[in-house]
Every structure is written in C-alpha cells, then in structure tokens.
Amino acid sequence: MSKVKSVYVRPLDLKHGRVDMSHGSGGRASAQLIETVFAAAFDNEYLRQGNDGAVLPLPPANSRLVMSTDVHVVSPLFFPGGDIGSLSVHGTVNDLAMMGAHPLWLSASFILEEGFSLNDLQRIVSSMAQAAKAAGVSIVTGDTKVVERGKGDGVYISTTGVGYVQEGSSPSGDRARAGDAILLSGTIGDHGMAIMSQREGLQFESAIESDSAALHELVAVMLATGADIHVLRDPTRGGLATTLNEIARQSDVGMVLNEDSIPVHRQVVAACEFLGLDPLYIANEGKLIAICAEADAEKLLDAMRAHPLALSAAVIGTVIADDSCFVQMVTKLGGRRMVDWLNGDQLPRIC
Amino acid sequence: MKYVDEFRDGALAQNLAASILKEAQSHRTYRLMEFCGGHTHALSRYGLLGMLPPNVQMIHGPGCPVCVLPIGRVDLAIRLALEHDVILCSYGDCLRVPASNQMSLLKAKARGGDVRMVYSALDALKIAMNNPTRQVVFFAIGFETTTPPTASIIRQARVAGLTNFSVLCNHVLTLPAMEAILTQPGGVPLQGLVGPAHVSTVIGSQPYQYITTRYNKPIVISGFEPLDLLQGILMLLRQVNEGCAEVENEFTRAVTPMGNRKAQALVHEVFEVRDSFEWRGLGSLPFSGLKIRVAFAEFDAELRYPNLIYKNVPDHKACECGAILRGEKRPQDCKIFGTVCTPDNPIGSCMVSSEGACAAHYTYGRFSEVKWVS
Amino acid sequence: MCLAIPACIVELLPHDMARIELDGVRKEISLSLVEDAKVGDYVIVHVGYALQLLDPEEAAQTLSLFAELARQA
Fold this sequence. Notes:
The structure holds 3 protein chains of 3 kinds.
Chain A: H1 28-42, H2 45-48, E1 63-72, E2 78-79, E3 82-83, H3 84-98, E4 102-113, H4 118-135, E5 138-147, E6 155-166, E7 181-184, H5 190-196, H6 216-224, E8 229-233, H7 239-251, E9 254-258, H8 266-275, E10 289-292, H9 297-305, E11 314-320, E12 327-330, E13 336-338
Parallel strand pairs in A: 4-5, 9-12
Antiparallel strand pairs in A: 1-6, 2-3, 4-6, 7-10, 7-11, 8-10, 9-11, 12-13
Chain B: H1 10-23, E1 30-36, H2 37-45, E2 56-63, H3 71-83, E3 87-91, H4 105-110, E4 114-118, H5 121-130, E5 136-142, H6 147-160, E6 165-171, H7 174-183, E7 192-195, H8 197-203, H9 209-215, E8 219-221, H10 226-242, E9 247-249, H11 261-270, E10 271-273, E11 276-279, E12 283-286, E13 290-292, H12 301-304, H13 321-325, H14 357-365
Parallel strand pairs in B: 1-2, 1-7, 3-4, 3-5, 5-6, 7-8, 8-9
Antiparallel strand pairs in B: 10-13, 11-12
Helix pairs in contact in B: 1-10, 2-14, 6-11
Chain C: E1 5-13, E2 17-22, E3 25-30, E4 42-46, E5 49-53, H1 56-72
Antiparallel strand pairs in C: 1-2, 1-4, 2-3, 4-5
C-alpha cells in the first residue's frame, strides 16, 4: 500500500500575517489558527481531546457549581499593566471569586476582525495563557469567528468561568447589615486611568498601570480567617461608587464613607484632576470590596494586608440604616456629600 | 499636588467655617451668589454647603456655559454633524445637552454623525490638519477662560492656511450676565457675589469695579479650592456687615488687577462683541457674546454654512432651568427635579453639566433633604 | 467653565508648547497665551493651555493668612 504523500501546509505567518475571512470559515485555515495559536498556548487535557466541548467532573459533596460570564471590548487592546487577554481571564476569575467560589475552568470565545495582526493575536493569547496558569485555571473550550474589516475593533473576547463553592452561606449583595464595616483592598482608579492615558486626545504620560489581577487567592485567605463576610464584590465598571450603590440597594441599607481613608495613588489623583474625573467612578480590575460584621473588621484587615494584592487595604466606611439607600461620604474637609450612582458616562469635564 | 493640597486642608477648613459662623450675624439672612459653575460644583463636591450656617445661603449663578447655552445653538451643531457631514469637535460637557427632537450631540453620534470629543481646542485643530479632505467644525463654548484657546487656534489655522476648518462660536461674557442678574425686575435680592476664579485670571480683578460701583454690591474673587471658597465667603460676609461694596481678590496667586493682557489682546484680535446673544434663562442680553471678526471670516462656521439659521427653542414646560439660572428658584423647587429630570435623563441643561446647580445638587447634595438615621 | 489646575513646567518644547507635571503625571500644553514662562514656573492649566503664571509669593501669603485665622480661632 503506497503512503499518501502529506500535503505541504504553509505555516501561519505569526510575525507579519493577518486574520482573514478563511480563518473563521471552519475549514483548514480555521483549524490551523486554532491549533497554532490557541491550542498551543492554552494546552490542557481537555483541549487535547479536540472535541466540541469539555466533559467536566461534578463538584465534590457539599459543594455547588458557580458559573459566570464576561465580554471584553476594551480599547486600546494593550495598555500599561495588561491587555485584553489577561483582563478577560482576571475578570472572570474574579467574578467567581466574589461568589466565594474556587475558579477552575474557563471558556474563551474570540470575535476577530479581518486584518487583525496575527502577532498581536498571539501576544494576547499568550498573555491569557500566562494569566490562566498563574491563576490555576484551565481554558478548556472556546470558539473563533471572523467579521469583515470595519465590523469589529481588532478583537472582542468573551470568557465564561465555572468553579465550585462550599455549601453554606456565601457572600451575597443583599447581606450587608447596619453596623457592618466596609473594607477596600487597595487603591482605586488605576485601571481606568491607565486606559485613559492611552486614549487618543487625552494622552498624558504617567506611571499609572492597570491593577488587573486575579483575586481568588486573596479571597481564599480572607474566607479562611473565619470572619463573618457578608458581601464581596469587585468594583469594575462604574467604579467604587457605583458598586457600593448597587450593594446598598440590594441590601436595602445606606452607607457612610470616609474620604480620607480611601486609598488613591497620587498620580491617579493628578490625572483625574487634569481631566475633571472623580476616582470614585473609575474602573478597577484588581480590587475588591468586603463588607463584614464590625467585630471581624480588624482581623480581616490584618489578613488582607498580609497579602501582596491588598497591602494598602483599609476600612473605608460603615453600613447604616437608611430607607433611601444613599451612600454618603465625609469629605477630607469634614463636610458631607453624597456618592451617587454613576450618572451617564464619566466624560472628562472642562468645567 | 502643590498649590492644590494645601488649599484643601481639613483643619484649616474647619477653622474658616468657625470664623464664618462667628461673622454671620444671627439676626440676618445672607444671600450670596457664587457666579461660577465651577464654584457651584466645588461647594457641593467638598460638602461645603453643609459647613455654612443656615442663615448664609448660596444662590447658584449662571456661570456655567453649558447651562446657559440655548437649545437652538446645540441644534445648529447637531445639524452640522448630521446634514453637512462635518467632523464636529466638542468639549465633553456639551455632548449630552438635550436639544430639539430629543436629540443631543451624543445621540447624533449614534445616528452616524461624526461627533468627536476633544479635551483641548488644539485637538480640534489637529483633527483638521489630519483630515484635509473633510470639513472640521469646532463647537466653541465658554466664558473668558475658554475663549483665548479658541482665538489661538483660529490664528494658528490662518498661519497654516487651513481651508477645511471653522468654528461655531458661542463664547459669552461674564459682566453682562452679572449685570442681568442684578437688574432683572423682581430680581433676587443678593448681598454680594463670589467672583469667578479662572475667568478673573484672564480679565483681571479691575473690570468688576463697574459692577460694585454701579450696583453697590461687594464682589470677592475666590480661587477654586475649598479653602479659597470659604475664605471668599468670609470676606464677603465681612463686607456685607460693614456695608462695603468693593472688589476684593482672594485668589491673588493667579489674579492680578489687569489680568492676562496677552490673552486679552489675542481675543480682541480674533473676536468682536455681538449686538446681542441669547442666554438660556436670561433671555437676549446686549453685548454679551462674541463672534468672529470679519478679518477671520473664513473660520466662521455661521458664514461657511449660511443655511444654518438660529431658531429659538423654548425650554420644556416643566423645566425650571431659567429660574434656577437667575437664582430665583433652587433645584429642589423644580417639580421634575430628581423624578423625570435626572442626570441620566436630563430635561434641561442644568442637569447635564456637572456644574449645573441641578446636577451638583442631585449628585452630591440631595441626601440632605431626606432624614436619615445614623 | 473653570476647571483649571496649577502644574509645574518641566520642559519647554518648540512651537510655544511645554511639558508640565502634576504629581508625576505629565502632559504637553500650549504656552501661547502666556509670556516669559520658564522651567520651574507653575502655571494654571485649562483645556490644554496655560492661562496664567502662578505667583508663589502670593500663594504663600494666602496660606499664611489661613494659618493666621487658625491661630486666632
């Protein structure tokens, strides 16, 4: 029996090549892209099976499944401190972590624009692989589609994550109670201002870097203290102010914050001053809010401060009874103001 | 931040508040107007209003150029974007101002208009230089602080010989508006005014003497930081108590009697005063707005697009922006404040601009009306 | 329309521009509206332009006035 000669397959030009429509058609070009770029980087037992889905083990006894999903459309794709790839992984890992869950598996779907640089794609995928490895999660399934030039912004990424959470009372947005302490794991505004610094027309030079990070290990440390943690949430879009308002409404309580105790990097303060923005409303991608019983605040804070991702953790306020669910703040000057929901988009002010 | 943080010191603020409490005579009610929208914003944002005694009332003035911009002028900008296929450059503050037919510049963008936000007038010029085949229009708004940058780019456009660049000029003047406030029939009885900080760096402190002499009200020009504001209010109270009506300058580190002559000269070279200009809430005021001089006519969007005719558009019936801008009513007196009219769904411009009295009160102050249990 | 912030000139650039700095954040702005600005001067910056030089002596005086009030109170 004569051997079938193997067909010469031109290798993908990862340095100078670009995504074209054939990469999304499901044929040989698609397969090559997936194999060379995605599977190679994400490599794990599930992906190696080459199936349409991943068969995953059931959670152990006394545990439940937690699932969460995100879509990422950040621009620019690469920014100080991260890129859309690492951001996607961290974002979904954090969503699971805020449920008190141990994150395990992610799916990753890509919408690629025709003409997108393969070199950039590989950088992003490599970054995702690194972030996943560091976080101890595997990307076990995914999909890729290509849209015509002009119909996408380079790349959009959607990630869905699955994890396990111990049965029992998990943190939830409706569990804040009057008297609880409000803790914040670190400086606010870093991610949003890192993005702003790259935006056309608003360009400014600074050392501000995105704080994009996976928080599940910090959460595990916090839960292990045995502190009575009622709420865990990461203040992403809309910033600290919006997230606190969401929690206040869900729990039907009010809050009083202390402006002086909210950590903000000096450069973030300065950049916000230039643009007329308020750090309270700027997105964060590596911080969390914890609301716990007052008696446990100190031990929780100590545990947080011992972790590299929460060195400047602080108690920033208290939960109070309030029918109107207002979040108020005592300003550095000793006056009082409201910290409202984000109204519309935070457009840079000139006034 | 140097020259900023020191002027935000909490302990000094408490002391100034205590001095204000001492100075304010308990049998009197003081009605002081902070003219400038930036001051309105600062009063709310730092929680200063709550630090003043109840008999010292701050009336919010019309010094917010977004708030006083008539709907009809925003309509012109929207038409340019949608009907003339220009690249319409605008400061961020203007993008959400509600205009006619439930439109706004942001909505025009969603409909396909090429509306671009700029942080600086220079950015608009750069866009014109980088897009030689497109017409670029800069939607210029602002008081005397923001006018010199517009003048600068028009001059630069002339030097560069640009043929694809023009400006839709809505620059307005502070003193005529102050005068309008003080002369309106049945007007608000004010005892004094806090003068604008950065307008004054450009025009100087001297021009305000016209107002103090003619209307016998003291004016204290105050810096932008909370300590400046508190100090300015204290100085005003002292003048009122002593029956004085002088121009005082608290913001001496940036305001001189003659102001910035270079900027003034540049503005004078490029612009001239219009016979009259319409202000939201104040009606048509004579000699209160600027237009581009004939010498720079090729950069005047109103001449380049002659079928852009300004049409006056009245406010929504329930909107009290006019009365609020004149200081006659407070935001909370408006029937639709906080219910129908919110920053997410602004009916009037006072709710759009973060310096508008309504937006400032909604965002920072509305908790004070509701009793809360500590 | 007042949002303006005092910042320090760290470098003069061609075409009447300058690099200013505020707490480690740097931006390029225009000096076309002011005169005789030098490196080390503080300027009030509004929409990408320096509007006026800040007078450090006056600033110091204003601050000492506040401190004086504090002593009296």
